[in-house]
Amino acid sequence: MTAEPGHPSGGDIFRQGDQAYELEERIAVGGFSRVYRARALDTDEHVVVKYPRPRHSGLDSEVYLDRELRALRTVAAAGGHPSLLGYRDHFTADGTTFIVVDYIEGETLDDTPYIGDEETIRTFGVKLASGVAALHRFGLIYRDMKPDNIIVTDDGAPMLVDFNTVRCRFQCSECGASVTQDAATEPTCHECGHAPGPITMVGDADKNRCKAPEQENPALAPGPWTDVYGLGKILFLLVCGFITQAPGEDPREQPEIQCSSSLAEIILRATAADPAERYEHAGALGQALAANDPRPPAATAVIRELESDTTYEVSDGDSIGRVGGSAVTVPSPPSDTGVSRQHARFVREGGPWFLEDTSLNGTLLDRNDEQHLLLSARGQQAHDIERAVPTRRMLLAGDQIYPGTDASRGGFRFEGDHWTKG
After folding, report:
1. What is this structure's pTM?
2. End position of a domain, from candidates 82, 102, 122
3. DSSP secondary-structure letter at 171?
4. Could you tell me if residue 316 is inside a domain?
5. Residue 215 · residue 170 · CB < 8 Å
6. Residue 32 belongs to domain spanning
7. Residue 205 in 3-state DSSP?
8. What is the CATH number for 327?
9. 13: which residues sit within 8 A by CB, 6+ positions away?
10. 212: closest CA among 262, 246, 256, 250?
11. Which of these, 177, 176, 214, 172, lies nearest to 196 by C-alpha position?
12. How many Å apart are CA 216 and CA 205, to the nearest integer?
């Protein structure tokens, strides 16, 4: 059956190369998309096919669906995550983009807010936080945490779905600085004072009680700490069976609710009204849940040596370079690679990690097969470089680091913040 342009319906078959999908039943209509359960004709598996709703309320649904596609493909390219909806395919028909994702058996958390005792709640929270932390590693923010965006699978695990509000971490359009947690309530850039334009608001704060206070102000940019707030409200729901509107609510103060002090303190910190008082990102919240300790964990990141597959844990200020000079040693650098004893250092600033070159010869940063040169100010002066070269760059999970001038050896892969994975 051929679909009417812009109006697919049950029974329609879409072909994309060797793949074909038959729409079976519409299962949801979201703010930006329509969702069908479909059948992959080559494997006879059930999948989900999503496509944008016609433009409404002045918002372009295709823009949001494109953001979802990019987020899904980013996670899929890194191997996926057990708590994030899996990407299958995408195609265009009649000028409309369709996304194909996994079909998940289960019910939304809205329908099943009780999942078990406190240990089960913490395990569930660790797994969900780990999925959101994977987004944060790639510089992405979810922005729309709520119970009906979480499916509880048949084995009781969380699956985060609906990625059309995901977007890259906000950066100043004037100087490129990332919004930091400490400056999250400031309407201007903490580096240059530039005031960005209003940020498009997503969702309805009155209907979604998981939205953080800063999401009600279009002058403020959300960050990983915004998703932490939503996760904290989800934990409150799992403990109490309902969600309160106000930030910083103590589950122990709710009638007939039993909650340990450690879990209550984790929820209070995660849902603090001031972003600076929350966990910086979902990984930190996940670590606190796994340890059953509300204190924020020490900020460390993991890098992996490409040749030996050895992992290193680094802290703010740790350097990478030759033997005897740095916390992380470049494996057997030949003399002509220009690797210094303290060649580059890791800097953690306001949440994200940066790599800062401190050498005379520079550091190569490879992101998605595109190389970027970092060179210290003294290196630029020594080489009499007229055009300014960045001295540092924000790191994303998957970035490859090559101290010196040879990108064929001695490299490391940045894997992001160290946290307990669910």
Report:
1. 0.80
2. 102
3. B
4. yes
5. no
6. 13-102
7. coil
8. 2.60.200.20
9. 1, 20, 21, 22, 23, 41
10. 246
11. 172
12. 7
